[in-house]
Amino acid sequence: GAEKAGKELGAQILWRGPNDETDVAGQIAIVENFIAQKVDALVLAPCERKALVSVAQKAQRQGIPVIVVDSALEPNIADAFIATDNFKGGQIAGEVLAGLIGKAGKVGIVQAIPGAASVQERERGFRAALKKFPKVRIASVLYGQSSVATAMQAAENMLTAHPDLRGIFAVNEISGVGTAQVLRLRRLAGKVKLVAFDASDTEIKALQDGIIQALIVQNPFRMGYEGVRYAVMKLQGKPIPKRVDTGVTVVTRRNFREPIIQRLLFPLQAPFK
């Protein structure tokens, strides 16, 4: 998305990312380096909601607009924040999972990284949704960090401790992939219902195989596209919105083949509108 907007608007994209999502110090160093290079604008997906605030403010003090995508800063000092409404996405996940298990039984959450705003908001929304279903109880919350192996271990531990678990909410791609692998290995596909965020190729395959029952799909292509577009607009002195909700869509085996879903899952194969 960012590359497409860059080509359309004549902006050169310099992309740098830390080694993994837990490497907060690495991301801060990357931003410091961009400030030293005197880039015109920053499009930032923060690893940690508080730790990146100081360096983002430093960029702004030097006249560099900061457009934040995907995960919020706290406080939200960004010139624009473009992301999923993660609380709402978590609520939708809770409602879908409650429906899949007949509105009764134990469920677990395979979380990601403590301190990452996006996944914490998803859990908050999930918990809020389950208040409407008093017979559904959250039995366990374990953290997958930023590796599939750790997410698998979290799911294994959860299923061992709670053999009567009816469903699991995986808060991001890594936790979704790890949990799906464990359900596949344990031959629990369909017996333990799995609702997962995101839509990597591995998650889509697990959906088609009946291991994942529903994917809560974001629009990262739009986040990248709008991030660059609003950065350019800001540099041109044009007004930009403070907050843009890029939306979520529930994808199941039933609606997977619909053209609108295919465009969301495979945006590079279709024109972006």
Task: Give the averaged pLDDT, no decimals.
Answer: 92
Q: Report the β-strand fraction as a percent range.
A: 15-25%
* Cross-sheet strand order for the largest sheet: 5-4-6-7-8-10
Tally of strands: 10
- Which CATH architecture of the largest domain? 3-Layer(aba) Sandwich
CATH superfamily of the largest domain: Response regulator
Helical coverage, percent range: 40-55%
CATH topology of the largest domain: Rossmann fold
Count of helical stretches: 10
Shape: globular
Low-confidence stretches at least 5 residues in length (pLDDT < 50)?
none
* Helix/strand order: HHEHEEHEHEHEHEHEHEEH
Please give the domain count: 2
Between the first and last Cα atoms, what is the distance in angstroms?
A: 11 Å
Oligomer type: single chain
**The CATH C-level class name of the largest domain:** Alpha Beta
What's the gyration radius in Å?
19 Å
The chain-level structural class is alpha/beta
Q: How many strands, which pairing sense, and closed or not: the largest β-sheet?
A: 6 strands, mixed
